[in-house]
Design brief:
Layout: H1 6-14, H2 17-28, H3 32-39, H4 43-60, H5 63-74, H6 82-89, H7 93-104
Helix pairs in contact: 2-3, 2-4, 4-5, 5-7
Length: about 100
């Protein structure tokens, strides 16, 4: 039994690469520049980004909800400062998921 290629997985799940990028954009809050960067990314990376963003959307309600969950784990006695939150906003969803996993232990 052959393992499907990333292109075959994209075609099976989303029909076209453009449809996959269109599905990612609302999840990551992207604009035209984000769309352009995503179009230059490999199919396997696009599938990974979609799966991570979809998990965050379903579990935490979005990137802000994930950052709030990390803040509750990292600062149980108080609120994080504005600089911390700004730093977290600049990270990718995958890095935030990894940080949450590490803090959850």
């Amino acid at each position: 039994m052959a393992v499907p290629t990333p292109k075959q997985m994209v075609e099976k799940r989303f029909k076209t690469r453009n449809d996959l990028v269109a599905a990612i954009l609302p999840l990551v809050g992207g604009d035209d520049a984000t769309r352009s960067r995503l179009m230059g990314t490999t199919n396997s990376k696009l599938l990974s980004i979609y799966d991570s963003a979809k998990k965050v959307q379903d579990t935490y309600g979005g990137k802000t909800g994930l950052i709030d969950a990390i803040a509750r784990l990292q600062f149980p006695g108080g609120q994080p400062n504005a600089g911390w939150r700004e730093k977290m906003e600049g990270r990718t969803v995958k890095r935030l998921l990894d940080a949450h996993r590490q803090l959850k232990g």
